[in-house]
Specification:
The chain is of the alpha+beta class and 514 residues long. The chain is built from 16 helices and 18 strands. A hairpin with a 4-residue loop joins strand 7 and strand 8. The relative contact order is 0.07.
Length: 514
């Protein structure tokens, strides 16, 4: 949309060479050998540039990295999805206007639509990321869909030029079928129903529009899928596909009862309550004093049993922040080095120390708790749940789940308490998980432009190595030993002795077996 505004203002054209726009950044080699890479190639994901999302972890100047990256084939020939194409479009907006793209869009798009709560992350150089990092309320995302369904108009006012809406929702590229079956426009995916479109975000974040019926659907699912070819959108297509008809059939009347059922369903999904909770006879005087316990009696007993127990990690490479979020937000964890458990005033807490910062997280033993987690001075809302259980060896297990409510990601950990609570083992996992990340990394290793650069032995075993490394990175197991205030050194020595004794015992058992 920002590109459409800039074109309508006469400050950009689709056939402009990207390297000319950033002329000051080009070295002699780029001026001689650069291909004809246009703005339209970026819009249609046909740039062929090999600097992709994985490369952002390697440096802070993403524009230079993009401009100096090799190009596969000829720009404009083949569709290859790359969010860095969208990032460079954002950089072009800033280059031409002197404004970050998010600021450029405020008076032209967000304010006319009444969108007040909007946040868009920037890269290390201060350029709006463009391809990801946009935070909007679902209601505001729906406004973008309603506007596009109505040819760029919202509440009777033309917001985005109608010509740009028509151009961006027309097919300009053919993606691989595993990504999408219906075509790709200017940063917009086509959908199954003729004329329909989708603003498709990763992990189930979508705005789908059906101009012929006026229907707009917003999803924020947090699924484990990237593109259009996915189970969730197949369900949407089942009910809103090519055969869907929103108009009333001949002789059919509107149903007030059906409408009320729809309203009630929406209220239930939003968590709204129709009536206030019951008040016991006697009213306020019969209230239960003090905080209410959170959890069943057994869950509370287990939480009280853990009160005051603290443990030191024997490996500090695992952080609270999911790996996918660390990469997408350029916000990397220092690693958890200490964990503690506390039960105070009827509430259960897990205390985590990352780097030099210690944070307490309230855990919901029945239902969930909403708390704040701070990662390198950036705040995130967490929904937390916890459950105690026993494994097949009779060991106490605490299962914790942390949902990052403003993201499409979750962190999970299973904590097994061993040797009379002197040691614990933490088994971590996250969603999206290793399958999704491995899919992305496999494409790098098998890419025809990159694979020849790798040693032959590495090429032969690279995929196996990726699977192994990702399993260890995304689903790691970490051991920890108990520490006591004022006796930390002594406790560590005891833990080391216990480990040595266990190793000797295992060796002796192995000899007996032989």
């Amino acid at each position: 949309m920002a590109v459409g505004f800039l074109i309508s203002e006469g400050k950009l054209s689709l056939d402009e060479n990207v390297y000319d726009i950033f002329e000051k950044r080009n070295g002699l080699l780029q001026k001689i050998l650069r291909p004809n890479l246009t703005v339209e190639h970026l819009l249609t994901m046909k740039s062929g540039v090999q600097f992709n999302e994985m490369g952002v972890v390697s440096g802070n100047d993403w524009v230079d990295s993009f401009l100096n990256a090799p190009v596969k084939g000829t720009p404009g020939e083949a569709f290859e999805y790359n969010s860095m194409n969208t990032y460079l479009l954002s950089a072009i907006i800033q280059e031409r206007t002197g404004m970050k793209m998010v600021d450029y869009l405020r008076p032209r798009l967000f304010e006319p639509l009444g969108i007040r709560k909007v946040f868009w992350e920037s890269c290390p150089a201060g350029i709006t990321k463009g391809g990801w990092g946009l935070f909007l309320c679902p209601e505001d995302a729906a406004k973008l869909g309603v506007m596009y369904v109505n040819g760029g108009k919202f509440e009777g006012k033309q917001i985005v030029p109608a010509e740009w809406v028509a151009a961006s929702t027309s097919v300009h590229a053919t993606p691989p079928e595993k990504m999408g079956k219906y075509g790709y426009g200017y940063q917009v995916w086509m959908e199954e129903r003729p004329g329909s479109f989708a603003f498709n975000g990763m992990l189930g974040q979508n705005v789908l529009g059906y101009p012929d019926t006026g229907v707009v659907i917003v999803t924020n699912a947090g699924s484990n899928e990237l593109f259009q070819t996915c189970e969730m959108l197949d369900i949407v297509r089942k009910y809103f596909g090519a055969e869907f008809g929103a108009e009333l059939k001949s002789g059919e009347a509107e149903s007030p009862m059906a409408y009320q059922k729809l309203v009630q369903t929406c209220r239930d999904l939003e968590g709204a309550k129709e009536t206030p909770g019951r008040i016991l006879r006697g009213g306020w005087k019969r209230r239960t004093p003090g905080p209410r316990n959170s959890g069943t009696p057994r869950q509370i007993d287990m939480a009280q049993l853990l009160h005051g127990k603290e443990y030191k990690m024997e490996d500090t490479h695992v952080g609270m922040f999911p790996l996918t979020l660390q990469v997408f937000h350029n916000n990397f964890s220092d690693g958890i080095r200490r964990i503690g458990f506390f039960y105070e005033k009827g509430r259960f807490f897990v205390e985590l120390t990352e780097g030099e910062k210690t944070q307490r997280i309230a855990i919901g033993l029945t239902g969930s708790k909403v708390v704040e987690w701070v990662e390198n001075e950036e705040s995130y809302l967490l929904g937390t749940t916890g459950q105690f259980a026993e494994n097949e060896d009779g060991e106490l297990v605490l299962k914790l789940e942390f949902a990052f409510l403003e993201e499409a990601a979750r962190r999970k950990v299973k904590i097994i308490f061993q040797r009379d609570f002197e040691r614990i083992r933490l088994e971590w996992n996250e969603t999206p998980g290793k399958d999704l990340i491995i899919e992305g990394l496999e494409s790098l290793v098998t890419d025809v432009a990159i694979a020849p650069l790798l040693p032959s032995r590495f090429r032969e075993r690279s995929l196996d190595m990726i699977h192994l490394l990702m399993a260890q990175t995304i689903e790691p197991m970490v051991e920890a030993h108990r520490v006591r205030p004022g006796k930390e050194t002594e406790t560590e020595e005891a833990a080391a002795e216990a480990e040595l004794a266990a190793a000797v015992e295992n060796a002796e058992n192995a000899e007996e077996t032989v």
